[in-house]
Amino acid sequence: MNAQTEHFLIAGAVGQLQCAVDMPDSVLYPEPLGIALVAHPHPLYGGSMDNKVAQTLARSFNAVGFVSARMNFRGVGQSQGEHDAGIGETEDMARLLDVMRARFPNLPLVMGGFSFGTFVLSRLQQQLEAQATPAKRLVLVGAAAGKWAMPTIPSNSIVIHGELDETIPLQAVFDWLRPQEIPVIVIPGADHFFHRRLGHIKNCILNQWNIENWGHALS
Q1: Which residues contact 167 (CB under 8 A, 6 or more apart)?
Q2: For burial by CB atoms within 10 Å, which of 35, 88, 117, 145 has the most?
Q3: Is 138:106 a contact under the CB 8 Å cutoff?
Q4: Among residues 68, 88, 100, which one has the least CA distance to residue 4?
């Protein structure tokens, strides 16, 4: 993604997994303020960790001092194995989290996913909650409501969706979140992949971050 991107492999349950870490600006942030996990869209439809929305999420977290970690899901790039409908992918993201927590101990965690990646990270959040080690916040873009059985999410989650999303209709997201009373940030004119509107995703995250001063509030 940039000169500060580090590519590496980790051992997963069904073979090696290709990962990437993006560090924040070392001048502004000599030490990272937190860890951000980023999950990409559906691997059977061209999704990878190099997806533009996934990269935008990683850059957004870097901009506020968090180290961002991504991985290619099973069967994508150098990651071994086959697509596992979100079950194995959740396990693999948990493995990446273990690696990141060992490398950057005692830092707060946030997680950001796009499309299928929102399903994976929402499931992972449920597991982390059961272990009393949850992410402090979820950022879900193009949330996979109506496509997969999306679990309930924390009340402070940031949900960003395109008005004209043809893959996951906005109404499906409203239906999923209405019982949870969680608001949705709607980007006017945006399709599922946020063509020509990627900057809005970053702006939404940074605006919320600045208002709430996450770097301190999440510590």
Answers
A1: 115, 142, 147, 192
A2: 117
A3: no
A4: 68
